[in-house]
Amino acid sequence: MRRPRYFTPKEVSLHNTVKDIWVSYLGKVYDLTPLLEEYKGDVLLKPIAECAGKDISHWFDPKTKDILTHVDPMTGCIKYYTPMGRIIHVPPPCPRTDWANDFGKPWWKDNRYEVGLLSAKTRWIRIINTLTSQEQRLEVCSEETLDEILQRYLCYNSHAASYTWKHNGINLDMSKTLRENSIPEEDEFYCGSPDCNLFSPSICLYFNDDLTEL
């Protein structure tokens, strides 16, 4: 089974328009662009569009993974609680004959929109190419393996797989995370720095003989 991809909150925040809209909730990341295209022009999209690129976990009950509910003081019935405004697939407050409920799963339960997982914690690292002396600072997901971090770094060095990755002179296991490779998190030895670059762990790349381009 293919391992899910992790995203940083910053990566999610970049998808913040109605033509490219991502949101995160309950630890997962969703691309709702197809949803907005399908219901284009519907006023019930407004609360979603206003949260483009943001985390909307506060809309949901973490136990049921459904929209929050409350007891309607007028009817005494349990209804969805949407103080941000009613959204697509949420029933109207009163029975109506013109409400189409043939959409199947509501969008928040439809895994077609799921693109990956939201990192519970991100880390800053410095990758130093010892061949060229170039240094690149990267924000990565703490859950990512070094192989997955390498994929992030490819846009700076397409031959990154042709290097041996080391920390403090020790070869790193590319199938393991930074933590599993005993690379401490910056807040373990310094907290509150105005310049976290000074305290970000460094990974040194040593060039091998072959040229591998991914």
TrEMBL record:
Classification via Gene3D superfamilies: Cytochrome b5-like heme/steroid binding domain (3.10.120.10)
Biological-process GO terms, alphabetical: cilium movement
Subcellular location: Cytoplasm, Cytoskeleton, Cilium axoneme
InterPro entries, A to Z: Cyt_B5-like_heme/steroid-bd, Cyt_B5-like_heme/steroid_sf, Cytochrome_b5_domain
GO molecular function: metal ion binding
Function: Radial spoke stalk protein that binds heme under oxidizing conditions. Required for the coordinated beating of multiple cilia maybe by functioning in a redox signaling pathway.
Protein name per the record: Cytochrome b5 domain-containing protein 1
Provenance organism: Culter alburnus (Topmouth culter)
